[in-house]
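Q: Hi! First time doing this. I have a protein sequence and I read that you can turn it into a structure. Is that right? Here it is:
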Amino acid sequence: MKKISIGSWAYCFGPYQDQPVPLDVVLEKVAKLGFDGISIGGFRPHGYWEDYPDIGSRKALKRKIADAGMEVLCYTACIEQANPVTEFDQFMRYFKKTIQMMVDCEFRTIRMDSCIPPIVPKGMDYAECKERIFEFLKRISVYAATEGIDVVWEFEPGFMLNKPSEVIEVYQTVDEKNFSLMFDTCHAQMCAVNAARQIGEKEILQGGVLEFIGMVRDMIGIVHLIDSDNTMHDNDTSTHAPFGQGVLDFDRIIPALLDKANYKNNWWEIDLCFWPDAWVVTEDCKKFVDQLNAKYCGGSLK
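A: Yes, that's right. Below is the predicted 3D structure, encoded as structure tokens:
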């Protein structure tokens, strides 16, 4: 029986940008719905490191989460002050501050992306961009390891290196024990089936998401479960459609993740990023994953 988490960022940016749901309210609701944990978005007003400037405020945040009965699966970095592809030294200064926030709060896993959209910056070429992404992901993984923190890298259409073969290349090139993939099912659909926002020749897997899952055996650190309706949100990244509002067959995906991908983490995470009614559909999404858990992970419905 795997534990179930949800990302807090669904309630603090995108459609909720102007009226974010306070973290206290999020914790209360997900606890009542029977979630085992939460991933903290490092975005205002939830977990931005500058808003917790000292050890006391960070310990208080940790206690608040624990008092709600929640574990923290992952911390999503908000490092928007610098681009690591073009401003690595400045980026690294902010990354180290983020890692210190995690150490103080005892968060053990950080979520990262490529930090650059699939648009080659002026004065660079694609090959150079790839090498710089490889380099920065390796360097931050090495640094994070010194504090006992794991790095999960999330591929998606909205960021560079979103072809299935490139995802494998990133994992193999970084080659650090604390580095793994964050496999989001809607991103997998848009990358492997729709070749969304890929640079150059499109790469489509005839076997779709299931073929992609087989390619990443022993590479996945965290799975994000959510449906896909084969569309993009604001022409930027994958639409995170609630279960049943898309095309994904989770009765095939879950066994493949467990068997073909050999997914070992004891968590599933629901991601409702950018969904306009995320607050409303959270309960139904939890029930859906409960059913998958009961069917495929030897558990029982809560």
